[in-house]
Every structure is written in structure tokens, then in C-alpha cells.
Automatic annotation (TrEMBL):
Coiled coil regions, renumbered to chain: none
Keywords: Ligase
Pfam assignment, any one: AMP-binding_C
Superkingdom of this protein's organism: Bacteria
Annotated TM spans: none
GO molecular function ontology, one term from the record: ligase activity
Organism: Streptomyces cirratus
Domain annotation AMP-binding enzyme C-terminal: ranges: 453-528
Protein name per UniProt: Long-chain-fatty-acid--CoA ligase
Domain AMP-dependent synthetase/ligase: 27-398
Length: 549
């Protein structure tokens, strides 16, 4: 028997029109680095998204299915592109501006982007690549920046504001099949070429509803969210779409991502929420330790993308800011888990839940697969690779314009689940604790050592700013941990002192023999520890390693 319910397609244009009308007074504030930030209401963003769509169709010949890239910071214009492009039936492709040039070239060519919308400040990055990007016909430049770098190149150059000026603020958004492509994002590709994930209108719509649930970020139009996580990093964790559903005000840092301007933004604009990877929160912590600021407007902070050291959570707790740990991936849109503790617990009882990666929502099914391919119980002890499935989880990668979708066996199970490559345990009540990436775990004498556990324990030392632990080859044990440590200014602790400290919480056989102090932990394009660089540095002998007896 079929239902008797209406079959309305979950199109992004519906989110846009809702936000534009019902939450027309909510605002997107963009930091400018000048005396006043720039403010635009959702009503204005809606008008301008329609103007942009009209311009893209009438001036640039954009058609349904055309792929349009953005090379932009987090700002109001990027939000306009987020809505205009998918709503008109085209596909938004956000480019990670921190990728090495050769990967950017690969991605743009693979996606066959026809148009690049770019912030003027990023033209020096884009211009030298354009001769290698034959599919790009148009470049649309937003904001200040020297446009002469585009002179003589075989593209049509447009000014964003000039394109919008005088256009109708009405667009008859097409009724789209909700399964069509809306946006695409390539994985940050630490191994091999980046792989493209294509989100549908439906997946983005449903994911946005999840973001807005109280068990996830649960914000309303009384909130302002400081979105530090870039719009090119998994759709800024879904926040721009989610906010137009519920009227959450957005505070966008544009290119001002350093700790000092972030601290100033928080103090002046008083966001109630923020979202960013641990590296950002580490940097901000050092800043406010040196120059105290009031961060207490932030009632909740979503931290994820890499493991949040419990010591970082504690440090912010002392500043009156509650960090909520979340896990996700490009392939999961990204919301997988969030670490809200169950009801009815004291603060002390909540703590063990808060330092997990979090609880699965109803929309994400999870299973753990052991080394032999067997399915493991949710008992908080059995460690295996996490596999997930759900309506906002990727079922394949983009195979290119003429290719079939790709389902490599190391990424997708035969029955269609996503293999996350993350290793961990799940408790009986559905909380995930990750112990490592499958490729980062240290296999020592047939036993596994969690690099993340060692890192968290090291970063709990008061004189340690950051620490990354990687597996290095060892004649006797196969692999052993190498601890690379960044000390805080004025620290006096030595390797032996750190090892003794670790010994208070870590089993003796897991303690590293190899140690090195470094200036900074190498980071990936989205601010995560780049362990492959450390492993290479060790292999190349460029690290000054001390071996304790
Ligand atoms: P990306 O697709 O670049 O966002 O990377 C996704 C990967 O980041 C995941 O597969 C995890 O390995 C890692 N990750 C994300 N969130 C967390 C977290 N809260 N704790 C530990 N690792 C995380």
C-alpha cells in the first residue's frame, strides 16, 4: 500500500525561500578587518541569490548540470553562491584554497568546472593555474584584489557586483528531482588523488535538519554561529544550509582566521556558537592565555574533524566555554556523531561521554568490523573499523563526466556501507570512541598502540602545546611510536620528564623510546595533523631524534 502523503522534492531552493521570507531579518556578518564588519540580511541574501542565478543563466550561459566552482573564504557572497547555484539546477563545487596547486588543477579538471567564483584576494592563487584549466570559461571576481593578473588569459572575467546590478531579484527555481547533484566536495586526499563526493538536494536537506536537531547543534534565530570551519571543508559542516532553515545568524571570518582577529570577533560580536577543528581552538587558547578575552558568549562550540584532546576541553571549560566533540567526514556530509551526554548525569559522570567522539543520530547506522571481517559487538571494548550508512552518507565517488561512479573495495563494502578507515569502539548506548585511523595505528609486536591516546596524554602536560605520534619501523617490534612534541614558550621539561608523565596514564610497553622536539606539527589543508609528512621526515632523517634507553 502506498502512502497518501504529498511527494514534495527536498530542493535547496525551498530552504533558501524559507530563510529569505520567514527569517528575513537574520543576518550574515562578514569580518572585514576594518572598523565595522559587513552585514547582510537573509532577505537581502535571498534577493541577491536570485540576481546571481539570473546573471549566471543570462550572461554566462549556465545550464542545469553545469559545474561551478568557488574559491572563496567564508563570507556573505559565498553563502549566496551556496544557494543560487544548486537552486538553479547547477552544481556547486567548493575548492579548498589550501590544497597544493597540482591537486587543485586535478580537481577542477576532474569536475570539469565551467565557472570559478573567486575572492579577489585569492586571484594570485588562481591566475597561474588557469592555463592548465581548459574547462574554465568564466571567472567571476568578488571583492578587492588586483585583477590585472588575469590579463591575457583565455577566460571571460566578470565582476560579481556588476553582474548582479540591475538584475531581477526573482528567479523561478526549477522543480528538481531531489536525488540530483547539488554540491560536490573532494576529500583532502592524504593518499592518492582526491576523490569527489557529490551531495544531492535530498542529502543536504536531511543533513540540515539533523544539524538543527537539539541532539546535534540545535541552534535557533536567537543564536549567532561563528563559522570558522571553511565553506570548502564539507560545506562548513552544513551550517550555511541549516541556518536558512531556522534563522541562525552567521558570523563569517572571511580571511581573518588568525587567533587574534578570531578573539576580537568573539568579544565584539558575541557569537553563541562556533565550529572549528582542534588546531583553531589550540591557537585561540594560546592567544587568550597571553591576552585574556571574554569568550563566554559561546554557550556551545562544535569541535571535530580531528580528535579533540580532553585537556583542550578542560582548558576551555575553565574559560566558561563548553566544547562539544563531533566526528564526521567529507563522505558523511559531515555530521556523524556528536558528544552530548545522556540525560540525568552529574558533571563528573558526563565527562567520560563528552570525551568520546559522540553518539550516532537516528539517520546514521553504524557497525564495527573486526580484522577478520567479523562484526563486533557494541560493548565499549571490541575495536574494529567503523562502517556507516544513511541518507547523507556517500555510496560512491564521482567517476568524472563520462565515467561510472567509483566504489573502491577499500572504501565501500559489498553491501554498500561506507568504510570510514577509522578504528574504534562503540558503547552499548551508541557512543563512538575512535582510537585511530586504520593507517595511523602503531602495530607493535602484534599489539596495537593508539597514537591518539598517546597524543592526548602528552597534550595534557602543562608545558606541551601540541604533540603528534606516528609509527616508525623498528627491527625488534615491527613498529614503535615516535613522539614529536611542540613545547610551550619557557618550558623546561625534557624527554625523560615527558615519558615519566606519560607513564602515569599509559601502559609501560606503549611508552615511546623515540622523541623529538619540533617547532610545529605539520598540518593538512584543513588543519589536521599531517602524519604522513612526519613519517617522511623521519624516513629522510631530517628529524633530530633522541632515543631513550
Ligand atoms: P575529512 O573528510 O577531511 O573531514 O576527514 C575525515 C576524517 O577526519 C575522519 O575519517 C577521521 O579520521 C577524522 N576525524 C574527524 N572528526 C574526528 C574526531 N572528532 N576525532 C577523531 N578523528 C576525527
Amino acid at each position: 500500500m502506498l502512502s497518501t502523503m504529498q511527494d514534495v522534492q527536498l530542493n535547496i531552493s525551498r530552504i533558501l525561500e524559507h530563510g529569505r521570507k520567514v527569517h528575513g531579518r537574520s543576518t550574515v556578518t562578514t569580518w572585514t578587518g576594518e572598523a565595522e564588519p559587513h552585514r547582510r540580511t537573509f532577505a537581502e541574501i535571498g534577493d541577491r541569490a536570485a540576481q546571481l542565478a539570473n546573471a549566471l543563466r543570462d550572461e554566462l550561459g549556465v545550464e542545469p548540470g553545469s559545474v561551478l566552482a568557488t574559491l572563496m573564504w567564508n563570507n556573505a557572497e559565498h553563502v549566496e553562491a551556496y544557494f543560487a547555484i544548486p537552486s538553479m539546477g547547477a552544481v556547486l563545487h567548493t575548492l579548498n584554497l589550501r590544497l597544493p596547486p597540482e591537486q587543485l588543477v586535478f580537481i577542477v579538471n576532474h569536475a570539469a568546472d565551467r565557472v570559478v567564483l573567486v575572492n579577489g584576494t585569492l586571484l594570485p592563487l588562481l591566475a597561474p593555474l588557469l592555463p592548465q584549466l581548459p574547462t574554465v570559461e568564466h571567472v567571476v571576481v568578488s571583492g578587492a584584489g588586483d585583477r590585472s593578473v588575469l590579463d591575457g588569459l583565455d577566460v571571460r572575467v566578470h565582476d560579481y557586483e556588476a553582474l548582479l546590478a540591475g538584475r531581477s531579484d526573482h528567479y523561478d527555481w526549477p522543480e528538481l528531482d531531489e536525488r540530483q547533484a547539488a554540491a560536490m566536495c573532494y576529500t583532502s586526499g592524504t593518499t592518492g588523488d582526491p576523490k569527489g563526493v557529490i551531495y544531492s538536494h535530498r542529502s543536504i536537506y536531511l543533513h540540515s535538519m539533523q544539524v538543527n536537531m537539539a541532539e546535534s547543534m540545535g541552534l535557533t534565530d536567537r543564536d549567532t554561529s561563528l563559522v570558522v570551519v571553511p565553506q570548502f571543508h564539507v560545506n562548513a559542516w552544513g551550517l550555511p544550509h541549516a541556518t536558512f532553515m531556522t534563522g541562525i545568524n552567521l558570523l563569517m571570518p572571511d580571511r581573518f582566521l588568525q587567533p587574534a582577529p578570531l578573539a576580537e570577533m568573539i568579544e565584539r560580536e558575541k557569537p553563541t556558537h562556533a565550529a572549528a577543528v582542534p588546531t583553531i581552538w589550540q591557537g585561540l587558547l594560546a592567544e587568550v592565555t597571553a591576552r585574556p578575552r571574554d569568550l563566554t558568549s559561546m554557550k556551545q562550540v562544535t569541535i571535530g574533524g580531528a580528535a579533540c584532546p580532553p585537556s583542550l576541553m578542560e582548558a576551555y571549560e575553565k574559560l566558561g566555554v563548553r566544547l562539544c566533540h563531533a566526528w564526521g567526514m567529507t563522505e558523511t556530509s559531515p555530521l556523524g556523531t556528536m558528544a552530548h551526554p545522556p540525560a540525568g548525569l552529574s558533571a563528573e559522570e558526563e565527562w567520560p561521554y563528552r570525551i568520546t567522539q559522540g553518539r550516532f543520530p537516528a539517520g546514521v547506522e553504524a557497525r564495527l568490523i573486526g580484522p577478520g571481517g567479523d562484526r563486533l559487538p557494541w560493548d565499549g571494548e571490541s575495536a574494529g573499523e567503523l562502517e556507516v550508512r544513511g541518507t547523507w552518507i556517500a555510496g560512491a565517488y564521482y567517476g568524472g563526466a563520462s565515467g561510472e561512479p567509483l566504489r573502491p573495495a577499500d572504501k565501500f563494502s559489498a553491501d554498500g556501507w561506507l568504510k570510514t578507515g577509522d578504528v574504534g569502539v562503540i558503547s552499548a548506548d551508541g557512543y563512538l570512541t575512535l582510537t585511530d585511523r586504520a593507517k595511523d595505528v602503531i602495530k607493535s609486536g602484534g599489539e596495537w598502540i593508539s597514537s591518539v591516546e598517546l597524543e592526548n596524554a602528552l597534550m595534557a602536560h602543562p608545558e606541551v602545546a601540541e604533540a603528534a605520534v606516528v609509527a616508525v619501523p623498528d627491527d625488534k617490534w615491527g613498529e614503535r611510536p615516535l613522539a614529536t612534541v611542540v613545547l610551550k614558550d619557557g618550558a623546561t621539561v625534557d624527554y625523560t620528564g615527558l615519558r615519566t608523565f606519560l607513564g602515569q596514564s599509559i601502559a609501560k610497553w606503549q611508552l615511546p623510546e623515540r622523541w623529538t622536539f619540533i617547532e610545529a606539527v605539520p598540518k593538512t589543508s584543513v588543519g589536521k595533523f599531517d602524519k604522513k609528512v612526519i613519517r617522511r621526515q623521519y624516513a629522510d632523517g631530517v628529524l633530530d631524534v633522541t632515543r631513550l634507553a
